[in-house]
Design a protein that fits this description.
This protein is of the alpha+beta class and about 170 residues long. The protein contains 5 helices and 4 strands; from the N terminus they run H-H-E-E-H-H-H-E-E. Helix content is about 60%, strand content about 10%. A hairpin with a 5-residue loop joins strand 3 and strand 4.
């Protein structure tokens, strides 16, 4: 009776409760939300996995840095011991590069003995102070490299031209 009266007076029929286009829209939006939810879940999972991997790598890196710090500390201590041993020693010490016979370093006792400054000695080759000459010095250095000989006897020439016998030890 209600609808009949409305139709009689207004001449309009009421429409259905939902428009026909609304159901496909709701289904489409639900599918899109489900897809986005799945993508979000998957992305969170990947982020969690990568975060765990990074945390593990960070832990390894921290350990490595701690080890490096310990090694650096030992190196500093070793360098100090070297300085005390090399620089403060009364023994004559020259560090020689066995590849080209260059004098890499000289302690103060060597500078005093050879009567050269450290800069002069470190710019020289061994055959410049050794009376044997370049070829024989190279041959002896080859023996040192092969560890066939540990001790040598030479005659070295000092800055003032004086020749002195020396014993050389490989360490």
């Amino acid at each position: 009776p209600y609808y009949l009266l409305l139709d009689k007076w207004l001449g309009e029929k009421p429409q259905g409760a939902l428009p026909t286009w609304l159901i496909p829209l709701v289904v489409s939006l639900s599918g899109a939300l489900l897809l986005l939810g799945t993508i979000t879940f998957w992305t969170k999972r990947l982020v969690r996995i990568k975060t765990l991997e990074l945390a593990e790598k960070n832990t390894l890196l921290e350990r490595e840095l701690e080890e490096r710090a310990l090694i650096e500390q030992k190196l500093i201590e070793s360098k100090e011991q070297y300085r005390i041993f090399f620089e403060d020693s009364h023994s004559i010490m020259l560090l020689i590069d066995p590849n080209d016979a260059s004098i890499v370093d000289a302690n103060p006792a060597a500078c005093t003995f050879y009567k050269y400054s450290r800069e002069q000695l470190t710019s020289m080759k061994m055959w410049q102070i050794n009376r044997l000459g370049e070829a024989e010095v190279q041959k002896r250095l080859a023996k040192i490299k092969n560890q066939k000989q540990q001790q040598f006897e030479f005659t070295h020439t000092l800055a003032d031209g004086q020749e002195v016998p020396v014993e050389v030890y490989r360490t």
